[in-house]
Structures are given as structure tokens and as C-alpha cells.
Amino acid sequence: MTSIEAKSGFCFGVIKAIQKAEEELQKGRQLYCLGDIVHNEQEVERLATMGLITINYEQFTQLHNVKVLLRAHGEPPSTYEIAQRNNIEIIDASCPVVRHLQERIRNTYNSAKPDAQIVIYGTKGHAEVIGLAGQTDNKAIIIEGENDLDKLDYNRDIYLYSQTTKSVDTFRRIVEQIEHKMQDAHFEWHDTICRQVANRTKELRDFAHQHDVIIFVGGKKSSNAKVLFAQCKSANEHSYFVSDITELTTDIQQACHDKRVGICGATSTPLWLMQQIAEKID
Ligand code: SF4
């Protein structure tokens, strides 16, 4: 028996970005997207067949007089400056949650003491983190986990934020450790993890417990997929990560045989992809 977890699939930020892309493409106009619209190769391919052209930053700087969609991850100020210089029309699909976080970081950067440290718990090089750090003229310190805490100076003020898709548990441990290490300086932390992600943790763990085998469907580049898969795996050791139907190996299919199989995914996993996997297993 196979079932797809009810709330798996795109979060509202990604749904909105894809809708915007589809609307523009249906008008028949040429549309570029700066970076993959979502960290899911199959969905990127689907939109490419509709005409969406994915470009990287270098290509973006070379373009003039075109339309470019900015995806849900958000962008640093430099992207908007380039667009203005090159007469590029921006279709801004930055997620409102990310945009709000960018504003908060920018306000802190503008109002904190000059030697204060703006710290972002996030993945270096991730598009959202680039956009967040850009609000601080790239002066923010990026920490990927507890092992990076020795990068901070505990004698100077610290303002901690998080990338929206990181783990709440690790964030809490980071806060505890900083509180413990702080000397005579100000420490302020803001749990800015998106609740579309954080609230998923318990639901997914329950779902993983209720099934014999879990097939987690997610893109290899998706940080949200990594976090959520880790939760499934810790709740049910018979959890497998696949990106598409071709990764459903004979071993995995055998493990699913005559079992209660649960299929779930990240906020970047399209429902149609999970349905494909379910059909193959049934
Ligand atoms: S996970 Fe949350 S912050 Fe990120 S795009 Fe989705 S809704 Fe927006």
C-alpha cells in the first residue's frame, strides 16, 4: 500500500514563483530566470520545455533589454543594480518571507554598532544566503553549524539570524552555545526559519513512523530536502532519498514489496513527481 503525505510539495513561495513564470510564458514573451527556479531538476526541465531560459550570474550581467524572473530565494541589492544598468525588466518572485528577512537584516546592519557581528546560520553559497549577506555589504558572518562558532568574537555584539530552510534544533543549540560563550556584549537572536519548513518536521516524523518504508523525493541541490530527509531517516531507518523515478533502484523496489510505503518530499518537490514514484511502486 502506497500513500503520499498530504502536505508534501511546493511551499507557497515556490508556488507563487512558478505561477509568475507560467503567466509570463503564456503571454508568449521571452523569459529568463536567474538560477534554477526551484531546487528540483525535473520541475526546471518542465518549465524549460515551456520556454523558460535559466541563466547564471555571468550571463545575467551580459544581458540587456530583456525580462528576468527572480526566484523565491531572493537576491542581493547588486542584482537589482545590474538590472537597472542593463535595462532589464525584473519579474520579482522573491518569497515575501525571504524579503521580510532581508529587510530585518538590513535594518540591523544599519542600526547596530559598527563593530557588531551580523551572523547568518545558513549554507555558504546558497542563493538565499547570498541575498541575505548582500543586505550587509557582504560583511555578515556565515556559520554552517556549531563547528563554525569559533569564528565569532564574543566580546563584540552579535545579531544572529537563520536562513529560512535550516534546522530549528541546530539553531537552538547554536543560540545556547553563543549565550554560554558571550562575554560583556549584547546578543540578540531571531529564529527566522520559515514555518512552512519548521512545522513540517513533526508531521514528517509522524508520517515516517506510520509507514514501513519511506521514499523521500527531493532535488540534490535542495537544502530543505536534506533537512527533511534527515528527519525521516531518524524516525524510520528504512527511508530512501530519490530525486526521480530513475533512482528507484531494484533494491529500493524490493524493500517496498508488500510494505506500507509512504512517499513524501520537500518544499521544492512537485506533486506530479511524487505521483510518478507512487505509480511505479504500486
Ligand atoms: S520555504 Fe518558506 S521562505 Fe522559503 S520559499 Fe517557501 S514559503 Fe518562502
- Helical content class: 40-55%
Q: In terms of per-residue confidence, which ranges show pLDDT below 50 for 5 or more consecutive residues?
A: none
Unique bound compounds: iron/sulfur cluster
> What's the story with the biggest beta sheet?
4 strands, parallel
| Cα separation of the termini | 7 Å
Structural class: alpha/beta
CATH topology of the largest domain: Cobalt-precorrin-4 Transmethylase, domain 1
Radius of gyration from the CA trace?
A: 20 Å
Strand order in the sheet with the most strands: 1-12-10-11
Tell me the series of helices and strands, N- to C-terminal.
EHEHEHEHEHEHEEHEHHEHEHEH
Q: What do the pLDDT scores average to?
A: 95
- The total count of helices amounts to 12
| CATH superfamily label of the largest domain | 4-hydroxy-3-methylbut-2-enyl diphosphate reductase, catalytic domain
Shape type: flat
Q: Report the count of strand segments.
A: 12
Number of domains: 3
- The CATH architecture category of the largest domain equals 3-Layer(aba) Sandwich
Proportion of residues in extended strands: 15-25%
CATH class of the largest domain: Alpha Beta
What does this structure look like?
With 282 residues, this protein is an alpha/beta fold. It folds into 3 domains: 2-6 and 197-281, Cobalt-precorrin-4 Transmethylase, domain 1; 12-95, Rossmann fold (3-Layer(aba) Sandwich), CATH 3.40.50.11270; 97-195, Cobalt-precorrin-4 Transmethylase, domain 1, CATH 3.40.1010. It is 43% helix and 17% strand. The strands form 3 sheets. Strands 1-12-10-11 form a 4-stranded parallel β-sheet, sandwiched between helices. A 4-stranded parallel β-sheet has the order 3-2-4-5, with helices on both faces. The chain is flat, with a radius of gyration of 20 Å. The site of iron/sulfur cluster (SF4) has 14 residues, from helix 1, helix 5 and helix 8.
